[in-house]
Amino acid sequence: MLDTVMIAAWRQVFIEAGGKVPDRNRERMLRNTHIPVPPEDTRRMDHVVPGLNVARGLPLFCDATILSPVSGNGLPRASTSNADGRLLEQAQRDNDHIYQEVLSTGLGVLLCLGCEVYGRWGDQCVKLVPELARERTRGLNPRVRRGTALALQHRWWGILGMALQKSVAEMVANADAGADLATGWLEPSPDPCDLEVIA
Question: How far, in Å, CA of 34 to CA of 19, rounded?
Fold first, then answer.
């Protein structure tokens, strides 16, 4: 459930950039694509996006993920306190290993669309959004192309950033019945006339 809002946000960005993301290409089983895998394979991709002229025109096989550098007990995950982006790098390596057929066949481009709960984005995300903006503005007059591309990037990062915050807020509110939220007062709130003013 945590990634559902993020998946929807990426879908909107891909569609606005000119990609084709029908419902059948959202959370699609890898065995139902043109990538040769066994028929009993149960892996799925968050998005399969054909029709874009990025990454040599190959379909984009995308796995969106949200990661936290802080574990459930409040401690930093291994090596994340002294190496920026370590968790995202590991997620990309894991993604490349899990979906290695996409890489080895050359029939698509595998993207790990990862971000951390505090707003750090993976290298593939940071590279992809400007490429999508350039693709979307390709046919425009050169005088307006750059400004329009920057405006699209601003819009898309806003959509993705809000999706990240909504996902994190939903996780905090719903995980363990809101265990991370203070749902009650520690003590009753005093009336203003009962407050002592110190000058």
Answer: 18
Note whether residue 199 is domain-resident: no
Helix (H, G, I), strand (E, B), or coil: what is residue 70? strand
- What is the per-residue pLDDT for 62? 93
**The total number of structural domains that make up the chain:** 1
> 45 near 14, Cβ under 8 Å?
no
Three-state SS at 110 = strand
The list of the chain residues with pLDDT below 70 reads: 1-3, 79-83, 174-190, 192-199
Q: CA geometry: angle at 55 spanning 54 and 56, to 5°?
A: 90
Helices (H), 17-141: 86-98, 100-105, 123-136
DSSP per position, 49-73? E-S-SSGGGPPEEEEEEEE-SB-TT
* CB-CB contact of 64 with 3 (8 Å): yes
Q: Identify the residue whose tokens are 């819009």.
A: 155
Q: Which domain holds residue 65?
A: 4-194
Q: How far apart are the first and last CA of the chain?
A: 51
Strand partners, 47: 26, 62
Residue 98 lies in a domain: yes
Pair of tokens at residue 38: 């066994």
pLDDT tens digits, 135-191 = 999 989 999 999 999 999 999 999 999 999 988 888 777 665 545 555 555 566 667
- pLDDT at residue number 1: 42
Residue 181 DSSP code: S
